[in-house]
Specification:
10 helices; mainly alpha; globular
């Protein structure tokens, strides 16, 4: 790897980390960048996961004051993220990565629509992610999060959008609080996948290190300054990113 490639990957890491901190979709920048410098697909996916995992840690730190979720809700969601992320990483190492390409655009389309109209679909009710959360709502959210985590451990493109959509459906309205919870769950999902990829020696460290550094910078700075913007602007940006990802994957798959 030469210096221009390192600079290119550093820049891709900044953009990917920034996108993940606010809306999700960082994989759509980081993953193709690694393919562009000729990292094989499976190894590019593993390297991309490590880079964006560190970015999630940085953005989660910036959002830490926004997290306000009771432990009885928080722990099941984190457990689902852990188990699902590990299962997804195992699938990636055992099956070809193109398996989900036909499903991916439909997933991002549905997630974007759910996020855009989640507030209306929740009928204006207060957030169900609180101390009065019903057992049914918590069970449904945990199952959904497990499915998202499996996908996240496998590939993860658009995972942030899907998690934001779930939180919107549960009645959360504070986009910064949603991003705080999303960042922590994403950190857990990618964290267990990272361990699996390192053990399997599927990471290209030379290409990954500049992207990791860029992801940390982009994740923290973007999360820090995003909290100063009106929530409506952030919501519109999330929908815009989700729409762009959906179009990209429809073109790629069909």
């Amino acid at each position: 790897m030469n210096l221009p490639q390192a600079i290119f990957l550093f820049g891709a890491g900044i953009i990917g980390g920034a996108l993940n901190a606010v809306a999700g979709g960082g994989s759509f920048i980081a993953f193709p960048a690694l393919l562009f410098v000729r990292v094989p697909p499976i190894e590019a996916n593993a390297t991309n996961t490590i880079a964006l995992w560190t970015a999630a840690a940085a953005s989660g730190g910036a959002y830490r004051k926004r997290l306000n979720v009771p432990r009885r809700v928080f722990i099941p969601l984190l457990a689902a993220s852990f188990i699902g992320g590990l299962a997804g990483a195992y699938l990636l190492l055992k099956t070809p990565a193109h398996t989900f390409l036909q499903v991916l655009p439909w997933l991002t389309l549905g997630a974007t629509l759910l996020f855009a109209f989640g507030k209306r679909l929740s009928a204006g009710r207060a957030s169900s992610i609180g101390h009065d959360t019903t057992a049914a709502a918590l069970t449904g959210a945990t199952i959904f999060q497990f499915a998202v985590a499996v996908y996240g451990g496998y590939f993860g493109g658009g995972m942030g959008i899907v998690m934001l959509a779930m939180l919107a459906m549960l009645g959360m309205t504070d986009i910064h609080g949603m991003n705080a919870l999303k960042s922590i769950m994403g950190f857990v999902i990618n964290g267990v996948a990272v361990v699996a990829f390192i053990v399997a020696r599927a990471v290209y460290w030379k290409q990954g290190i500049p992207m990791i550094i860029g992801g940390i910078v982009g994740g923290y700075v973007s999360a820090h300054y995003a909290q100063r913007l009106p929530q409506l602007w952030i919501r519109r940006f999330v929908v815009l990113v989700g729409t762009g990802m959906t179009i990209y994957f429809f073109v790629k798959a069909y």
